[in-house]
Amino acid sequence: MRSRNTRRGMAAAAALVSTGLVLVGCASSDSGGGKAASGTWPGEGKAECKGLEQLADFGDLTGQTVSVYTSIVAPEDKPHIDSWKLFTTCTGATPKYEGSKEFETQLKVRVQAGNPPDIAYVPQPGLLQTLVATGKVVEAPSQVADNVDNWFGEDWKSYGSVDGKFYAAPLGANVKSFVWYSPKMFADNGWEIPKTWDDMLALSDKIAATGIKPWCAGIESGEATGWPATDWLEDVLLRSAGPDVYDQWVAHDIPFNDPQVATALDDVGNILKNDKYVNGGIGDVSSIATTAFQDGGLPILDGKCAMHRQASFYAANWPEGTDVSENGDVFAFYLPPMGSEFGNPVLGGGEFVAAFSDDTAVQAFQTYLSTDVWANEKAKATPNGGWVSANKGLDINNLSSPIDKLSGEILQDPDAVFRFDGSDMMPGEVGAGSFWKEMTNWITGESTQDALDNIEASWPSS
């Protein structure tokens, strides 16, 4: 699943006032299929615009605006807005930010009403596919395609493509394959960070023998309740069956209730439905369903729980003043593999930049966001951490927090086997519907087979 600022943190709808502005341009040109550039590039001769020479293709955009709609709301919108200052310096155009907790629902409403923003940060490939099907999303210009080819892996470009056409460049990313823990608790008890899945289970038994519950978890998230359990299944399926089977499952080339998926969910159940293992500091197994995902790992700080599987973005949920570092109050380790056959699988997510206009300023902004320059600007504009990108031009040293740096290293590791969050790529009826619901039912007593059968039955026929 994605970050708390994207689909999983959102409940459904409320009205929203649009700030989108339609930009007026001229005839079409070869600079990406949009409107012709005119005037002298404002970045000409400016040292701070070095590396952004592509923007010269779009000419002088002084006075133009680009409306940008996202799910990221205050105060976390400020780093994004700050990272755009260089774009204005080098083009003269000004992006206008609009964030909403009802982003996903309202974006669809606005597109259907003919009032889309110029740019939207789309938090999952499945939603991108839905939007493309409306015919309102514009293919990315050639400059953006070139940047993605240069700075991102092929998988990332494929997630921004629909039916062989490239629409949306990757933006931010997150790593989901993490287990949060207390370095001090581990050191005081002589516990070692596990390197394999079997080591992790052995450690869980060792911790349970001390009277401490080794695991704590929470999957409550309003109308999105259940999503953290979907991440568990996806992470384990990648490890037990491998990336090829994972891809087939996500695409429904094999049924949702395939025996390999059932095995993976039982492996999850060996932890999450094990009374000896959970739910440290909170309650019994059933308490997982009623514990807010933001609170799921907090018992670690009280020594009542040893481990909590959750994504890199969980760093923002620790109380203010918590030292999140290798030797601090809490940190995270990579969720270990089940064997060597499938390498080091990494489950993750991210956002994509979709455009509903091919105006020159819009294409210029898309281009800027796809550069290594912007990735580093965004990193430097996020001094409190909580952001990372899979852009290979990102200097890890510009990331401010230890967990962001660890995430960046994992994303840039050429040996890592990265796969996007599966539910984010499934049809909405499944990925944001039956999958969440049935994982919640499963936690509260439903069998593995019944849960998977019910999800399979909900898969749309076309």
UniProtKB/TrEMBL annotation:
Residues 1-29 form the signal peptide. Keywords: Signal, Transport. InterPro entries: Bact_solute-bd_prot1, SBP. Pfam families: SBP_bac_1. Gene3D superfamilies: Periplasmic binding protein-like II (3.40.190.10). The keyword Signal applies. Belongs to the bacterial solute-binding protein 1 family. This is ABC transporter substrate-binding protein. It comes from Nocardioides aquiterrae.
